[in-house]
Amino acid sequence: MWMLLLLIAVAPIVFLAMKLDQLNKMQNRLKVQLHFAEQQSVQLEHLAFWLAEAQSQQLLAKVQQVGRAHTKAPVWYLHTELLCKAIPVLCKEQANHSTLPRQAVAKFLKQQNQLSFNEMENFIRHHPVLTEFWQSNTLTSYLKMCQRAVDMLQEYQPVHSDRLAG
Question: Could you tell me the residue range of the domain that residue 124 belongs to?
């Protein structure tokens, strides 16, 4: 009888010890998976920053090419240039602080001290094709907006006074 009572008392302890061992093994496996996921996350973050920088440089090269091609660049040349320069900053701000594009651009423009955020928004609102992207307020839409602004610059044809006289 005492043996049966002892067995009934010890069985739950043995069962709990086995479950605890299983949980420890699962915890160790999950720690390894978490470490691997964190490494991948850091690698993807570096890749995203590199791609953002490359995209920015590519668009800025096109902007500068337009600037060299025209003796008088459009008034919104600076706006487009600053939008493109903000790409890496925006990407970093979103990754580190979950900042929305508008907030990151406002912060970037304040640091640049060349154009106010209101002036930038007025430029964007003046061009409906840009407004649509701006209103989405996502990184993807921001990149599309920058590409479209550069396309607009490349399509820019200044009005020459000799055309007006003829």
Answer: 48-157
